[in-house]
Predict the 3D structure of the following.
Amino acid sequence: MSDVLSPPTRVPTVGFVSLGCPKALTDSELILTQLSAEGYQTSKTFQGADLVIVNTCGFIDDAIKESLDTIGEALAENGRVIVTGCLGAKTADNGDNMVRQMHPKVLAVTGPHATQEVMDAVHVNLPKPHDPFVDLVPNSFGVAGIKLTPRHYAYLKISEGCNHRCTFCIIPSMRGDLVSRPIGDVLTEARALFAGGVKELLVISQDTSAYGVDVKYRTGFWDGKPVKTRMLELVQTLGEIAEPYGAWVRLHYVYPYPSVDDILPLMASGQVLPYLDVPLQHSHPDVLRRMKRPASGEKNLERLLKWREACPEIVIRSTFIAGFPGETEEEFEHLLDFIREADIDRAGCFAYSAVNGATANALPGMLPVELREERRARFMAVAEAVSIAKLQRRVGSTMQILVDSAPGMGKKGGLGRSYADAPEIDGVVRLLPPEKISKTLKVGEFTKARIVAAQGHDLVAMPI
Ligand code: SF4
């Protein structure tokens, strides 16, 4: 037996690019966690990597182009590329896989939510490291794995797929029907994230209100106690877990079903943030029916006003589509009235654009692109006026702000967000240099601040 140690083997390195929505980001986090656990090194660059994984988005034409361009770049600069994500599940007009058709040299292609298939492709093309010195690479979130968001906030995905078939959407054909994660796993991940320093947990899925429908709200276990796989119990327990950490829980993609009424008391009592991201897409019942939207039979305006009564602090964010096929001027004006009456705090709007493979493409009454764009612009003018008026009302109040950026300990001010602002999609709070010389700001910590002005979608505040 030799007593000479063999020289340390080079650690295989995987370049990783993550494109797309928060759901794609959580897929990336799972793959990166697995790579890291198996001893692979990961890098954000193509050069020097042994192969590159590109997690793609296939939702709208711009996203498809960006994904295809990135794959092309990775092939040109590195040459060995594995593709995953929504675009990987897409077929071209002739029925072939779109990625393979455009980039036949890729090593492997998988759809979204396919950690194991991606890892299988990695193992085939870049064998697992056997260096005993490279073992489980520790990460700060334990069972929650690697996170691509800043350390102080994280997305928590509670389910995959969707049981609806909205006519403008192809997500169910890419991600399949709803599959809820076991409630015990979700809550364990949440606790690990809080313990690792996360101060804001963003609950995501395709339809958060449908959590547990697929398993008939089965009773699971967490911390030795039975808990139903259902939104109310999930939100309640997340609020309880977050409390000792003083952390925020924010809910995204909640549809206006009657069952959501039960969550409002939890918001009013401060257990979870009084913030709901409700993707409404339209207000007119006929358009909603043509869209085949979930909860399209519900009286959305009444429901939203009832929520505001139950929790006056509630902030409602939503997204809409202007110029959907067949949309009449009267239907569009119904939407504008709705924005004013429902007092939507934050609204985004897309001009309708046909998505390859969506059934809405076959609906009669396709509107000219210019009209769709014009309606989008009219929508945004109304929505911005509503939103800005609501922000103005905050001037003079004191809010709790989570600090996102604070160069030099905040001596020159910084950036943060209040409960009314989700990261990346809403506005920010611009923090002025604190008046008190002893006051410092730290990223990932809360500060109280007095709102001194509203600027467009943002607020300006003095830390106190
Ligand atoms: S609810 Fe509709 S828009 Fe959302 S993922 Fe499901 S089918 Fe698509």
In short: The mean pLDDT is 89. The pocket of iron/sulfur cluster is lined by residues 162, 164-166, 169, 171-172, 206-207, 294 (CB under 6 Å). The longest strand covers residues 446-455. The two ends are 68 Å apart (CA to CA).
